[in-house]
Amino acid sequence: MIFGRSERAKPPVEPVTLKILVAGGFGVGKTTLVGAVSEIKPLRTEEYLTEAGRPVDDTTGVEGKHTTTVAMDFGRITLREDLVLYLFGTPGQERFWFMWDELSEGALGAVVLADTRRLGDCFAAVDYFERRSIPFLVAVNCFEGSARYPEQDVRGALDLDDGVPVVLCDARDRRSVRDVLVGVVQHAMDFGAEHRQTVTT
Question: From which residue to which does any coiled coil extend (predicted)?
Answer without folding.
Answer: none
